[in-house]
Amino acid sequence: xxxxxxxxxxxxxxxxxxxxxxxxxxxxxxxxxxxxxxxxxxxxxxxxxxxxxxxxxxxxxxxxxxxxxxxxxxxxxxxxxxxxxxxxxxxxxxxxxxxxxxxxxxxxxxxxxxxxxxxxxxxxxx
Length: 126
What we know:
By secondary structure, the protein is mainly β. About 0% of the residues lie in helices and about 45% in strands. It has strands at about 5, 10-15, 20-25, 35-40, 45-50, 60, 70-75, 80-85, 90-100, 115, 120-125. Strands 2, 4, 5, 6, 9, 10 and 11 form a 7-stranded mixed sheet that branches. Strand 7 (about 70-75) and strand 8 form a beta hairpin. The model has no long low-confidence stretch (mean pLDDT about 95).
């Protein structure tokens, strides 16, 4: 098990940027693939981006490609989501998640993750 704590959410104008951080407890962070998910108001949770254990492979939802960047620092047991050119439709609660399901690949299915943070609100005003 790993404990995850997100931070960095807030209110930003359209076109602005935010950087989310997810700090993980424990000394086995590098054995987890990581993902960022979001749940817009009244909608289901969806994957935004994922990164494999080493950081060498990433995945992005089509809606955020070219605007968001996922990265991880295993020495700091932290995963980041840099969000640029934000749009009102990016408004959601953003969740960090961890998985041991895959060794080399990126897990894109929500069901593949079994450790979740509490979420952080991101609101983009028009």
